[in-house]
Amino acid sequence: MSKFLHRSEEKEIMDDLACSGQELTQTLKELRTINKLLGGNNVTTSGLAVLMKSSKNQPMTIADLGCGGGDMAIHINKWAINKGISLQVIGVDANPNIIELAKEKAKKENRTIEFVVGNVFDPDYIKDPVDIQTCTLFTHHFTNEELVNILKNLKSKTRVGFVINDLHRNFLAYYAIKWLTRVFSKSNMVKNDAPLSVLRSFKKKDWEEILAASGIEKYKISWHWAFRWQVICWF
């Protein structure tokens, strides 16, 4: 079980910001299905609901970081409309190829969402501060040291708080997703990256150490099915 003691720093195929083409399209399609079937998207929106309790129904702006193909940004948009909440959603990703796919998907679904290319290591990854930022299956792509820098950047661009939705590192999650992707996936990227994502993900102690190093004192960490950590931080 030694492979689960510490976070892996092995890079995923998707970490290549130049990745594109049919393999990327197939990967995003399969990830969309996995997240939908396992209910992971609700971990983000339930966190948003907590942060928005004090908004008194005022219009808010949300930036979804590492937005990928736009699935979570679109999910947030649909969730807000169904709840009668006024939200402006901005999807941010460092891969320009993925941003183009996200724009196409949002247009196809007739969703009014802004998608921009931005790197979270850049202090100006978004032009203006927003009310809330979300990170869904995004933070595991970075080392602890990198995450500390990213979270400090987020704090400077966030008025209310942010929601992190990412994986729980353990043997059951690892072998379950490894088996599922081996049997059902048609994407070599998914077969490689999905199990590796678990090895790169977190235990609760990891989050406590990262948040402390980032200077974040007000937060809540909770576990959700399937093998997700919800980290809510507010200011």
UniProtKB/TrEMBL annotation:
Supply the Gene3D superfamilies for this chain: Vaccinia Virus protein VP39
Q: Which GO terms describe its biological process?
A: methylation
The UniProt record lists the Methyltransferase domain at: 62-156
Q: Care to name a GO molecular-function term for this sequence?
A: methyltransferase activity
Write out the entry's keywords from A to Z.
Answer: Methyltransferase, Transferase
Q: Which Pfam families match?
A: Methyltransf_25
What's the protein here called?
Methyltransferase domain-containing protein
Q: Which organism is it from?
A: Cyclobacterium qasimii
